[in-house]
């Protein structure tokens, strides 16, 4: 099976890391729209237009399945992308909610959703959790973490100050939905900040669980062949991939 992974930039490599670790595919084609990242502060129509343009890129490859690693794209563009492609396009929001449900939390446990402005405004995670009966949800736009991660800042004073800025007034969460591709990279810092050690829901691990539950996938013997493309500075993205992966 050959799959595509689409993200607004480099963050989707956190999803690729999980896909590689579970070894379910022969080939992974990654495309990061580095020329136009970030998508999180943009309007719905722009996010949909950029996502449909990314599909044109994947038309160059004979893929069986496309995963939109980007939560912002997953929140807005899946119906349009599925309507215009002849392979399934899967997002990461439904898998994230499923992973949280599998953790069997109490319905009144506090769940923190951290995501970009667009994802939070879409209320996609919130509505799905409410539908499942969750009553204690905190939604936070935490877009400042995106450029920090892009700069390779995974700990230190700047990150601590940003965590204080966002979290000093909130109830300690029992679980955190890392509703943005970049946030798994600050997972350790979040666990240091929240001493109660909340459960972290990671889009990459969630999509792997989701794929295993829905598709008849065999674990491959050889590691997947990964090809990385970008709309700008592909060498820079490949360098980040060397470090992250
Ligand atoms: N990939 C985006 C997401 O997961 C984060 C970066 C951006 O704003 O484009 O929502």
TrEMBL record:
Keywords: Cell shape, Cell wall biogenesis/degradation, Isomerase, Peptidoglycan synthesis
Pathway(s) served: Cell wall biogenesis; peptidoglycan biosynthesis
Residues that coordinate or bind substrate: 7-8, 39-40, 71-72, 181-182
EC number: 5.1.1.3
Active site (catalytic residues): 70 (proton donor/acceptor), 180 (proton donor/acceptor)
Main function: Provides the (R)-glutamate required for cell wall biosynthesis.
NCBIfam families assigned: glut_race
Name used for this protein in its record: Glutamate racemase
Source organism: uncultured Sulfurovum sp
Gene that this sequence comes from: murI
């Amino acid at each position: 099976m050959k799959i595509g992974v689409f993200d607004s930039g480099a963050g989707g490599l956190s999803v690729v890391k999980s896909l590689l670790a579970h070894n379910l595919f022969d080939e992974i084609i990654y495309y990061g729209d580095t020329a136009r990242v970030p998508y999180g502060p943009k309007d719905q129509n722009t996010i949909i237009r950029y996502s449909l343009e990314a599909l044109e890129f994947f038309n160059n490859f004979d893929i069986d399945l496309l995963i939109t690693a980007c939560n912002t794209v997953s929140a807005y563009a899946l119906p349009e992308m599925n309507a215009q492609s002849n392979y399934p396009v899967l997002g990461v929001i439904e898998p994230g909610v499923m992973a949280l449900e599998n953790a069997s939390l109490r319905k009144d446990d506090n769940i923190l959703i951290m995501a970009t402005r667009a994802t939070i405004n879409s209320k996609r995670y919130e509505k799905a959790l409410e539908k499942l009966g969750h009553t204690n949800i905190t939604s936070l736009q935490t877009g400042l973490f995106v450029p920090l991660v892009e700069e390779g800042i995974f700990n230190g004073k700047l990150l601590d100050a940003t965590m204080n800025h966002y979290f000093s007034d909130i109830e300690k969460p029992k679980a955190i939905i890392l509703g943005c591709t970049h946030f798994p990279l600050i997972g350790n810092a979040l666990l240091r900040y929240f001493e109660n050690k909340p459960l972290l829901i990671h889009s990459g691990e969630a999509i792997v669980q989701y794929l295993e539950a829905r598709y008849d996938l065999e674990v491959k013997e050889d590691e997947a062949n990964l090809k990385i493309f970008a709309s700008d500075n592909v060498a820079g993205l490949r360098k980040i991939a060397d470090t992250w992966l």
